[in-house]
Every structure is written in structure tokens, then in C-alpha cells.
Design goal:
182 residues, alpha+beta, three-stranded antiparallel sheet, 34% helix, elongated
């Protein structure tokens, strides 16, 4: 049973040769030898994937069509947040999963050998320092008789202040619960 092996057309072979090592300068768009691919993060932490063929029309027309589709679908998915999603390259790396401070417990040993624990609210975020993202954090003590509510409200205010630029996107993603801080 001899089956004829499938071979690419000369045009497809030419496109494959062009594509080798090709990278896209457009966000959420990538290339393969026979199509231009669109990959958009959705607000529910999913992905929107489509492709536009370029064998018949050519790569330039396919790229224009892909950009048009990307902008249309991105605007539908993200609404007024689309321009920030599109133009902020490291946005999804910096977004917090929640705007609630975490609780941690630190242990320390006294000179007498006694071990004491202190509870803290911790707020973590990333800042740009010298062109690189560096992790930052702040602790708010609520152990040893300090008021838990005041420590929580201070930590929550810092968390909201640090992430104030991302609040519309977090609302769109459903990661923002509306609690008014005193």
C-alpha cells in the first residue's frame, strides 16, 4: 500500500522559508508559515485563539486582518481597559490575584530561649527599579495585643494604593471585591 507523501506547494514552501525565525512586533500576534495567529488573554483567565490564513492573500493582508480582528475582539472582551491591556507588556505578570493582604506568622527566639510568634498582614507588589521588576512588601503587625482591624485597614489601604492603576482591569476580571476601607 504505497501512499503518496503530501508535499507543500511551491508557494507554501516559499512562505515557510520566509517564516523561519520570524517574530511579530505586534502584541498578541504570532506567525506560522501558513497563517498569522491571534492569542488574547480573556478576563476570565482564558485565551482567545484565532488564525488568519496567508497562503492565498499574502502575509501583509493576513497581518492587517489579524490586527483588525485582534482590536475588535480585544475591545469586546476588555471594553475600555483594552488600550492598557494592549500597551502594557508586563501587565499580566504584575496583576495581583486578590486585593486582600495575606497573614503570615514570624517566630523569634529571645535570649532566654523562649520562642515567640507575631502575626502580620503582608502586602506584596512589584516595582520597576532600574528597568527591572523587583518584589516589594510591607508588614503590618497585629499580634501581641495590637488591634487586628487597624492593621488590616492599613494593609488594605496600601494594597489599594499600590494597585490603583489596575483596579478597572481587576474589576473586569472579577478579582476586585468592593469593600470600603475606613
Amino acid at each position: 500500500m504505497n501512499k503518496k507523501k503530501h508535499t507543500l506547494s511551491p508557494r507554501a514552501q516559499k512562505l515557510r522559508a520566509e517564516w523561519t525565525g520570524m517574530e511579530s512586533e505586534h502584541r498578541f500576534i504570532s506567525h506560522s508559515f501558513n497563517c498569522v495567529k491571534i492569542h488574547i488573554h480573556t478576563p476570565d483567565d482564558g485565551m482567545y485563539n484565532r488564525s488568519v490564513g496567508c497562503l492565498k492573500e499574502g502575509r501583509e493582508k493576513a497581518l492587517k486582518e489579524a490586527i483588525k480582528q485582534r482590536n475588535k475582539v480585544g475591545k469586546e472582551l476588555w471594553g475600555n481597559c483594552w488600550s492598557m491591556v494592549l500597551n502594557y507588556p508586563s501587565l499580566f505578570e504584575r496583576l495581583p490575584h486578590s486585593l486582600e493582604p495575606d497573614i503570615i506568622t514570624k517566630k523569634r527566639t529571645l535570649l532566654s530561649g523562649e520562642v515567640r510568634t507575631t502575626d502580620y498582614y503582608i502586602v506584596r507588589w512589584k516595582e520597576i527599579v532600574d528597568g527591572e521588576y523587583k518584589p516589594k512588601s510591607r508588614l503590618f503587625s497585629h499580634g501581641n495585643g495590637n488591634d487586628k482591624l487597624s492593621a488590616y485597614s492599613k494593609a488594605k489601604k496600601v494594597m489599594l494604593e499600590v494597585n490603583k492603576d489596575f483596579i478597572p482591569i481587576l474589576k473586569k476580571m472579577g478579582r476586585f471585591n468592593i469593600v470600603k476601607v475606613l
